[in-house]
Amino acid sequence: MKEKFYKGLIATALSTTLLSSAAFAEEVRVMWYSDGVEGEVMSDLLDRFMEKNPDIDVILDNVAYQVVSEQLPIALEAGNGPDIARVTNLKAQSEHWLDLTPYVADPAYWQENFGDKADWMRPDGSDAITGFMTQLTLTGGFANATLFEQAGVALPGADASWDDWVAASAEVAKSQGLVAAFALDRSGHRLSGPNVSFGANYIAADGTPAPIDDGVKAFVTKMVEWTNGGQNYRDVWVSAAGSSYRAAAEDFINAQIPYYYSGSWQIANLATKIGDDFDWVATGSPCGSDACSGMAGGAGLVAVKYTKQPEAVGRVMDYLASEEVVREFTERTLFLPAHKNVVASGGLNFDTDSDQVKAALSAFVEASGNVAPNAAALPAWKWASAYYGALVTRTGQAMAGELSLDEAFDRMNADIAEQVAQENQ
Amino acid sequence: MKAITFLTRRRGGDTWHWTDVVTFAWLGFGLIIMFGPAIWLVMSSFKSPAQLAEFPPTILPYVSETVEVPVKGTMKELPLYTVTTEGEAPRELAEVRRVGIIANMVDPADPETVIKVNINDRTPVRRVGLALENYAKPLRDFNFGLYLWNSVFVTGVATIITLITNSMAAFALSKYDFRGRNAVLLLIVATLMIPISVNIVPLYSVVSSLGLLNSLWGVILPTVATPTGVFLLRQYMLTIPDELLEAARMDKASEWQIYWRIILPLTAPALAVLAIFSVVWRWNDFLWPLIVLSRKELFTLQVGLNTFAGELNVQWHFILAMTVATMIPVVLVFVFLQRYITAGIAGTGLK
Amino acid sequence: MISNEKTTIGAVLSAPVRWLAEAIDIPMRWWQGIAGRPGMISFFLIPNLLIFGMFVLVPLFINIVYSVTGGTELFLSDRSYVGGAHFNRLLECENHFNPNSCREDLFWIALWNTIKFVFTQVSVMIVFAVITALILNGKIRARAFWRAVFFFPVLLSPVVVGLIWQWMLQRQGVFNFILFQFDAQAINWLTERTWAFGAAVGVSIWAHVGFYVLILLAGLQAIPRDLYEAAEMDGTPPARAFWRITLPLLWPNLLVVIVLALIRAVQVFDEVYVLTGGGPGTSNLYLTQYIYEVGFASILRNPGLASAASLIMASILVVLTLAQLGLTRWKDKK
Predict the structure, then answer these.
(1) pTM across the whole model
(2) Closest Cα partner for A339 from A112, A100, A137?
(3) Mean pLDDT across the stretch A50-72?
């Protein structure tokens, strides 16, 4: 008991000294979540910044993604929050981001290098600089080349359709005794690339959500049929209610499914966990009737409007957005960069000695040229998350056999309409 | 076998009564079902990420055996496999590299000759071993000591405040007759059943207005208001005879002295139960601390270990290891205080 | 027994605490002199009521205001009045027994699922708890050990409980591995409706049954042994003794167990949410999860709608409590 008490005293004393020494410097809080090593890399980069700028104390709060997705929106609504945050739901929360234009050294640099994605993170019609994308992501497929080879099935080519891929994978699954032919993450964002490939358009002429169209119906119908037929790995989609995210990466890593539709962010994860167990390749997005599109996306680092020291935030953001820092971050995390000049000048020396990883990264870079205009418009569209949520919830129910397809489409329309109505209240 | 005869005893006599069989079966079933998952959790926390994803799963954690072999002049660590080809005895070979479904392997004793083997004919050689890295890395990189201190602080302070305020209120509600007592009681019973998860947003706005966000007090105060404690203690205090209080008043005891010299000692079993449950609840609290605390120097253990859950990937091996580590204090509390839990629950009688 | 308790508390109250309490007595006496006994009552009540009011009653009040206002704003002054719109949206149905005909179908699915869950979980768990308590009350050795075996899951956090069982029940988990050993067909424990519901019920029983076993065991141990001996001498068969002696004398404890179990079951959330995410489809979507997601967790937050749903849930709980109070009164009169 006493010992605990003393330990407590020591801890209190320590924390007060820490706080008082920090009181001399301006404190900038960064809320950050990690899927892999990026938290460590970021922490390194910030340490270097603080060495050069002793008057700013940057604290990296590594949190669970759940905090970013659930706690941060409420905090922002209450006018709280960190100074800088790494966020994926950028557009819908854009009213809370700070316009950095007066606080960055060279707004023209920002516009030139991050300008094409600036609309993803600012309200419609605004020309604010609110932050930059720490990474771009693109959805796409991964195939287990070893399983295909063992089954004696050729990998479908670059123009192969969704039907071709599912048929080929089903053949592999059958011959190798696997649980399913393919899996697609439980996510509206993942579903949207293929939807657009089948001609879907979510955005009506006036910018509001359009009703569910034939493109969505075509691919969702296929997905439900593939689920009932056992080709689609059922567990991923039916193992949750509502709009919860579920990934199937573990099953692909464990060689239980020969084909997995996810995205570029999986590369580092697959490389570490699969190791030398089998050969895998990135395939880009299979084709639908209209296109072979994936969906772009990613996480952005944005400044929060409620900060008390915007100048310090501007300096931190300037540093993190500088070309050499972006380059180092990209190389060490194996992310796709969003910095125009880093992309244009090329020569990225990714921190890996795996040929598979390098091949996969370049496959995604190549596939980024195939993103259809309807898909490219979605990240900057404020109703995208409403649309994704309705898609996931109702498609999941249709796969579980609770709703017929027609009922599911009606419910999607109703869900989106309720959402629009609520916003206009 | 000795352990079994120690743990169970037949209903007397040498013959087996059917109730003995039922007892044995039920207890055996209970042991497997109740304890099995915990053992499995502990075992899994020592497995490497790749092994966690494996099917069929193994109970014990394994590590792959490697061997040092000279390849083109330099020594290399190569994974060892058992190779079984038809018509030959199984051999242990080291894999140099794999191309598609063909593995190039060498015999460690004869590293010059490359043998080509179909990958289905080889299985890795493994021995039981612990992936201690699951524990070591988080303990090193992640501020375990600080999180532990925060958890201890929250649990300790919340439990003390709960015990004091709840027992005072329960005393007033059980031993005095005053106007509005029934109204207070009804209010407490009515709110007894509303889970925090349905009230999060309003509670957040209250805590935010009070400036308690990113403060351990913001975690402590909302939880100590739990009506459960008041309810439990009041029910127990009702059984204390009023004559004791009257006698003390004759002896010029103040109401405060009655409370802490008579009521508190006599309520000890119920207080013990409340204390134990309060410790367990506060230690395991997850959702509310996650919402209030977003600064890393304030994280409790449960919040801290959740940072291994990213958007797209969850680092299970770390989560499992840290889960086991955070369970240890609760298990210790239980082992040492088991007697009080049972005595307390029996004593509270829960009328 | 009482002296034993005194030594326990004596050990807990070390000298400094005792001094402190004595020191507090000086201002206490002064206060009692001024305010009299009623003043002391408020002194004892106020700390708890202050915290209770601030963190339970005020949020409850805010909840009511939320339920009649719209938008995603947090502060009451920023929210616009919408009247009964949220309640209308929740309650609008062609047929209340068919969620698909309702405007807010997920709410009704969650409501019916909760009712189904409560009845199944509580009845199965109580049967289990009674049998276990009877066996532990029998002549066995190392009773403390066995009690601990059944009790320890109560100590685990719900998140851990959900995680462990998800791992064991997933398609490639231990359970299917056991089936695989016996050449049996693998079962999709968490993705077939019936199995997943069973798994949710089973896991929540696993997590809570120990607590109730302890309460029942305490009740059983309070039943005088000589009652059974007398019955045995009269040649009463054991089954009859159970119905005639054990059950009536156990009734007070059993009632407590039923009420507590009902309350807990209505609130079902954490472990089942981690275990199934509410799936497959919506077959394990319960009210608490619905409210949590609508009001807080989903991208499409609607705090007003969630508050309206939580008020409906609260009114169900109040009815349950009143029923319980009625039952106790009725029993006392008898």
Answers:
(1) 0.85
(2) A112
(3) 90
